[in-house]
Amino acid sequence: MVGTRLRGPVRFWQQALFLGLVAVLTFFADTARAFSQDRRLTQFHHTRWTIKEGAPGQISAIAQTEDGYLWLAAAASLYRFEGIRFERFEPPSGDPFSTIQTLYAPPDGGLWIGFQLGGVAFLKEGHLTRYHGTEGAPTRSVSAFATDRDGNVWASEMRGGLFRLSGTRWEQIGESWGYPGSKSRHLFVDRDGTLWVATEKTLLYLPRGAHRFVPTDVSVGWVFQLRQAPDGRIWMTESGGDVRPIPVPGHGQTENPPTLHVESAGMLFARDGSLWLTTLGDGVRRLAHPERSSAGDAAEVGGEVESFTEKDGLSADYAWPVLEDREGNVWVGTSGGLDRFRTSSMVLAEFPRGSHDFALIAGNAGEVWAGTTNRPLMRLHDGEVSFEQLGSPVRSAYRDEEGVVWLGADDGLWRVEDGRLSRVTPLPDPLAQVQAMTRDRHGTLWVSLTTGGLMQWEDGRWHSVEEPLGPLDGESIHTAMTDGRGRVWLGHQRGIITRVDGDEVRRFTEDDGLRLGVVAALTAGRRYVWVGGQFGLAFHDGERFRPLVADGDESFRSVSGIIERPDGSLWVHAVPGVFHVPAEEVRRAVGDPGHRVRYELFDFLDGLPARPTLLRPLPTAIAGGDGRLWFATSNGVVWIDPERIARNPLPPPVSILSVKADGRRYAPAADVTLPIHPANLEIDYAALSLSIPERVRFRYRLEGVDEHWQDVGTRRTAYYGNLAPGQYRFHVIASNNDGVWNEHGASLEFVVPPAVHQTWWFRTLCMAAGLLLLWLMYLLRLRQLTAKMRGRLEERHAERERIARELHDTLLQSVQGLVLRLQAVAEQLPEHEPARQAMEKALDRADEVLAEGRDRVMDLRSSAHAGRDLSDALVRVGKELAENLPMSFRLVTEGVPQELNAAVQVEIFLIGREALLNAFQHAGGTAVEAELHYDSDELRVRIRDDGAGVDPEVLEMGGRPGHWGLAGMHERAARIGATLQVWSRTDAGTEVELKVPAEIVYRRRPKAAWWSRLKDIARLARGR
């Protein structure tokens, strides 16, 4: 049933589970017996599959295995059916089957196959085992299998005797077992564990645990089948058309059992106790109460046999195998296909087929009256239909509070009182028909006519209803009802409702919450008035109408009948089907306007033959006096007993059928390896609930992909795309038609292998290649920056030399010449002249200016220093400074000296000279030390002293105010891409360290170890 279910599976301990399962199955069997034993064969829900639906033709054997699959044999083919699809089984070895004679599913799982030309095979979990004559197996036509209580498998060979499987070998049963060794037609194990065997002429039986057969005096012909009835009797079908229980004393048999002269090929005692027979040309027969059969009423028994043939919808009249599955459905194989008979919740009433436009009403004695437009008035009581001649069609039926049934026919108004039918009066308008009727608390009958009039029948006369309603102006009243307080409610065609309470009239419109379109159903409940219409369902809470909204796939649309039961539950007849809303859901909706009610929906799968009529007759739903609910449709009437609804308590077995990746199919084995990078993955699965497989619902989850369960409804295929490499587990669960879930379900593990580009080693190589590429790009960029910096330094160096030349050749030479002339002039003046003394002072100052100018030119002409080694240049500066101060100096060189870039060397020298000048002139220490370290990745220059140190505030400001030596050192270091650091503490000296990258300072970079290259990369990363 579609919608939300209110039950679920319950887990118990092992013993409790077993006992609970037994109790459930016992209850289910009792319920099924109560439901179906009293039903006619035509009242079962019948479904057929023919070749058009993919079913095989000429089905010769049927069996249901422990996993829930239905297996069908058709000539030399074997099919598996899960309720939706027929799947042909192909032997794994490729060796085709010969013609299959019989199928048998043992209790412990698997499927035994007997072949017409001899030989047997056993199929389990996709593995097929064939038995040949070398293993002692039957070599001729096998007619039947059976399993005794000790687990032994028996097989009957039609022309070779009886066989028993012992371990892996078959043994032929002979005289040591008391078996005559004659032909074996059929065999069967009864509920006591007794093995019955029909030979060529008689019956034998082997009690449980015995090793010798007991002969009987029963003479038999060619026995087709042996079956046990619920009362313990063993019945058999024989060639020639006899179906009878066998008269064997001590086994619940009678001395002179009845004989049914039905030429039957297959026989079944269903769990409800009924006897089903298949015939080779006359369809299916059913005997509802075979336990009532005796020798004295054989003729009566024959009269109770019902038939169902191709005219009734059977796939073919040539029927052979018959089987009842674990859910109680009866399956029949015919020459034309496959048929299923199941007990549905809704039962088709016994009214004649072809009747239509039912006006239903319940009588006082448990009967149901039905008026139609093409049949006389009908009275249904105890399954029998009688007819009453009114002379014209009945369009409307109504029962008042006093139990009087009113009938609106075309020729007038009729009533049924105390079982007697009488005519009341002609209609006031001979061209009109009765649409609706109701009787108020004063006994006045209100009648709505199709011509738009609203009339009252009171005191033997018709009155037009104008006061207090006023003129209707041709407006049609669709439905009418009188509530428990005697108020009359009238539902209008244009979507309004009029309530008449004596002289008080109130009309309800959209302003009062009434938004239902055409009003087609009115029902007075215990507390509320329920109304149904074109657009839904609502109730009146005393002031206004409030809608009732469904929570499910369907909505309450086009409601034509409403029944409120004594427990407060609602049954609503609408276009989608019959809705059952539990009382608790109704209470929640009344208390919470936003609550959406859960429901059960009964539709065509439950036996509903068609949709309700929406114009008339109305209403289409009534409650009978025996508690059954009746629903009229355009193609018949059905009833349902709310207290005895057929439920399916069995959770469906779930199986995974196949896995398909990019068009290639894989068997669902323990470990499935899919191709690399599957773009489209499809997993087919099934749930083996054969009653209503259309309502089986599924949920699945792929661990590693789906975070939650995917509720896919009835879809039987899972789809995934572009799965990443890895190991996956697919899990699927299912519920049957009544919402009972199999929480264990089925699972499948599979592996998606990685492509070459998805492996760890490929990713590692890609990462290494990426790092290498970054390193090469870094080196390239470093070379570009180095070359650019070198170019700038060389340009600066050339410019400095040019300026130095210009200063030396012009300004200094001119100033030197001027000084010489002034010197000559000064020498001509007497020594004691003040002018000469002033001139000589000016000349001394001019000499100092020339000396300073020469020093600046020397700084600009750095080539003078670039021509000698850096260490020599620093040593010369250090020694010159140490000559006039009480401080020692030494230089330490580490590593292999390298040829330096001239422009960079000048900057390094100037930075070093400035550091030495600061150490000698300002430190006030006793020693100064310089260190040159030639490393493969950089050149380090350190100059340290043991003097007074530098004030931290001076270091933080970058130098003393008005002094630019420290700032100039940082600027020079930045120009050549070097780093300069100064460390100092009070009374602990000062250390200056300059680091110049090898790519900048060396003309040829020395060979370096691999870790030095990594340092370059790290330095680049820090720089970014």
TrEMBL record:
GO molecular function: phosphorelay sensor kinase activity; protein dimerization activity
InterPro entries the record matches: HATPase_C_sf, HATPase_dom, Ig-like_fold, Reg_prop, Sensor_HK_TwoCompSys, Sig_transdc_His_kin_sub3_dim/P, WD40/YVTN_repeat-like_dom_sf, Y_Y_Y
CDD domains: HATPase_UhpB-NarQ-NarX-like
Keyword field contains Kinase: yes
Residues spanning the membrane: 760-780
Any one of the GO CC terms: membrane
Coiled-coil portions: none
Top-level taxon: Bacteria
Gene3D superfamilies, sorted: 1.20.5.1930, Histidine kinase-like ATPase, C-terminal domain, Immunoglobulins, YVTN repeat-like/Quinoprotein amine dehydrogenase
SMART domains: HATPase_c
Pfam families from the UniProt entry: HATPase_c, HisKA_3, Reg_prop, Y_Y_Y
Residue ranges of domain Histidine kinase/HSP90-like ATPase in the record: 903-1000
UniProt entry tagged with the keyword Secreted: no
Alphabetized UniProt keyword annotations: Kinase, Membrane, Transferase, Transmembrane, Transmembrane helix, Two-component regulatory system
Protein name: Two-component system sensor protein
